[in-house]
Amino acid sequence: xxxxxxxxxxxxxxxxxxxxxxxxxxxxxxxxxxxxxxxxxxxxxxxxxxxxxxxxxxxxxxxxxxxxxxxxxxxxxxxxxxxxxxxxxxxxxxxxxxxxxxxxxxxxxxxxxxxxxxxxxxxxxxxxxxxxxxxxxxxxxxxxxxxxxxxxxxxxxxxxxxxxxxxxxxxxxxxxxxxxxxxxxxxxxxxxxxxxxxxxxxxxxxxxxxxxxxxxxxxxxxxxxxxxxxxxxxxxxxxxxxxxxxxxxxxxxxxxxxxxxxxxxxxxxxxxxxxxxxxxxxxxxxxxxxxxxxxxxxxxxxxxxxxxxxxxxxxxxxxxxxxxxxxxxxxxxxxxxxxxxxxxxxxxxxxxxxxxxxxxxxxxxxxxxxxxxxxxxxxxxxxxxxxxxxxxxxxxxxxxxxxxxxxxxxxxxxxxxxxxxxxxxxxxxxxxxxxxxxxxxxxxxxxxxxxxxxxxxxxxxxxxxxxxxxxxxxxxxxxxxxxxxxxxxxxxxxxxxxxxxxxxxxxxxxxxxxxxxxxxxxxxxxxxxxxxxxxxxxxxxxxxxxxxxxxxxxxxxxxxxxxxxxxxxxxxxxxxxxxxxxxxxxxxxxxxxxxxxxxxxxxxxxxxxxxxxxxxxxxxxxxxxxxxxxxxxxxxxxxxxxxxxxxxxxxxxxxxxxxxxxxxxxxxxxxxxxxxxxxxxxxxxxxxxxxxxxxxxxxxxxxxxxxxxxxxxxxxxxxxxxxxxxxxxxxxxxxxxxxxxxxxxxxxxxxxxxxxxxxxxxxxxxxxxxxxxxxxxxxxxxxxxxxxxxxxxxxxxxxxxxxxxxxxxx
Length: 810
Known about the structure:
Blueprint: E1 8-10, E2 26-32, E3 37-41, H1 42-48, H2 52-55, H3 75-78, E4 83-91, E5 97-109, E6 112-120, H4 129-140, E7 144-149, E8 154-157, H5 159-165, H6 169-172, H7 177-180, H8 184-199, E9 203-209, E10 218-228, E11 234-243, H9 245-263, H10 270-281, E12 288-293, E13 312-321, E14 336-339, H11 344-351, E15 355-358, H12 361-370, H13 372-381, E16 385-393, E17 396-405, H14 414-451, E18 462-469, E19 478-486, E20 492-502, H15 504-522, H16 527-545, H17 547-551, E21 557-565, E22 570-576, E23 582-584, E24 590-592, E25 597-598, E26 610-614, E27 620-624, H18 636-648, H19 654-665, E28 674-681, E29 689-694, H20 700-715, H21 721-738, E30 743-749, E31 752-759, H22 779-786, E32 789-795, E33 798-806
Parallel strand pairs: 1-3, 22-25
Antiparallel strand pairs: 2-3, 2-6, 4-5, 5-6, 7-8, 7-11, 9-10, 10-11, 12-13, 12-17, 13-14, 15-16, 16-17, 18-28, 19-20, 20-21, 21-22, 22-26, 23-24, 23-27, 27-28, 29-30, 30-31, 31-33, 32-33
Helix pairs in contact: 9-10, 9-14, 10-14, 12-13, 14-15, 15-16, 18-19, 20-21, 21-22
């Protein structure tokens, strides 16, 4: 123990609020860390007879009678203790022994540590007035208390219980809790009282109830204490209740705010978000709620800057009521209503802050002049209080949420204003997010629709049906696309692709890739080479060569490209990370074509391989994006199996097949875009194709020209003879002069007349403008001017130069 700074003789204080306290009734002694007495008060003198000068500065051990009769621990045992209590046998000044109870406190001060020892000079004996003293204390206690006997009947209630119940003790005496308070909570209280009597243990309850004479529901923390006699037998139960209404309401407000944060904004659908606000607020906060937005909001537009002043027009988007069917509603959902300048909604929006309005007879008379139907509904349902909160987010005013009460008697107060503002602010941000998303989604859809085929081109090689289904609002518009591209020689290319990501960036990238595929298809590249060039393009976009590509980081895509030739019935397919296509044979057999799995576009440096197969006429090719089979919550194998089952069942036409696939595989709005292309193959009849080998001799040109003219006559195409003679002469002459054997002429009679000349050279011709005295260089120019189109494509053992001319309508 450490000594104190100075010795002092503590005398009884005087004056002030402590004048009724007898300080000398307690012996107080201070002992420092060395055991030396540093303070001695009048009470200590009364107890042991020593005056302060006789003790202060001396060791306290001199006051002990002997070690055998003391229970004071030594210094080591006291180390770390903050308080000690026990007894000690002391020596009085006159020499007699005195056993006293001691309470010692360890304390720290600026001078060090010491111990304060206290002991009552004389312990007061019980007096007859004690019982009355205890009863008065019980009656005047600031807590709600009542004493019940073993029959659970009230025997005694204090003043606070009388105040809470609104009844004097005399009127409650002899009644049970369930007879004093008619509420289900009173039955729980009685059950707790029985448990306390049976078990002898304290019971703690929480209760929320509406008491007679109180305007609002109150919350209570109730303690039920079993009371026993001296023999331990139960005598009754002491009920002690604490009003925790404010804490209860604060918790309820926090629960409501938490519930609002979880429930509001579950989707990016604007009307649903507004309805979620109304659903959260009823019935815990209001009896009737409406949400009205400025008309421009639902179109995704930005509302005018600043707060609207004067009369306003608002569209009703949500409402909720404690009454079934919202009978209080005057304005129906989707309807735009006018609110005059003096209305609650208009004043709230103009002020830019919440407004609480109590419905008085004068207010209803004023409303009769401007909105008589609203006034009539307010009278009918007993509206008494309205809270209007402006919906603002990111500096923009979106609308107003109006909370009304007509069933609960309590009017809106300041705490309610803050709570209404809190949950409305949450909803406003979510509504603004939905508005901004709607605008971006509409922009993306517009862009995407402008980039997708507006109609399938006319061609005779395939019967084609297609579907495109955008993703759900939550997922956003993606970058799926499909295309049907007519090629030379009556062939057709089918394309399906999928760009990684969603939004405007994905749609823009999709448009670029689709344009690139069409450009590469015009060059007539084989499928594997086309994907290689497309992969290079994606790498350049992702590498930052493009400003828009930099906005959204890396770019990736998958693609499947197939070319079908109706003359040979050959189909060549290559894919870049895309799902394999399905093939349905004319006999109904369903297979998924084993096309080598090339890497997704954008990885770079890896090769693509193609597969070639011969298709029977009437075969069905099904190309799709992964959104069709990779449905959330289901394995992709389940989607493939379901697709197989649909394709096994013959449909009336291709449109019905598309509908059946979507209906079976997509039970709800897809989480990803879906592109679907279904094509049935046709075969060009052999009678519509004529082929002649051409000797590498200029003299063979005339004979070849005559053979072509005879074939046109057999087909009834005499009107095309003149142009065909010129085309055949020019193309065959060029092949003989500049190409290599073998040379072959082929005419194809389809929707158009196609002339093809093949040779063994890979050198492609090109147009040039002949000068005045040039002897050649005008042939291809004539072909280009006389035909619908011309071009060249590479084949395995050379090239083909083709020209296509339109035929007169029948």
